[in-house]
Specification:
The chain has strands spanning 11-14, 17-20, 43-46, 53-56. By secondary structure, it is an all-beta fold. The strands form two sheets. A two-stranded antiparallel ribbon has the order 1-2. It has a two-stranded antiparallel sheet with strand order 3-4.
Length: 62
């Protein structure tokens, strides 16, 4: 699911258990977009400060 579709009722899978969203906010800052692709397993942990949220290969169309 794209981040723009998240809501406070969503529960994410974390490295150490389930994660509940406490707030959703748009942060406008300069950054770089990268594409990550893992094989053969298409899931990996990601995060801004530590790799804690389970995610998967995704192709952005933007």
């Amino acid at each position: 699911m794209r981040a723009e579709r998240l809501c406070l009722a969503d529960i994410l899978v974390g490295r150490f258990g389930r994660l509940t969203l406490r707030r959703i906010e748009a942060i406008i800052e300069e950054g770089k977009k990268v594409t990550v692709s893992c094989a053969p397993i298409h899931e990996f942990y990601a995060g801004r400060h530590a790799a804690t949220v389970l995610t998967h290969n995704y192709t952005f169309n933007s």
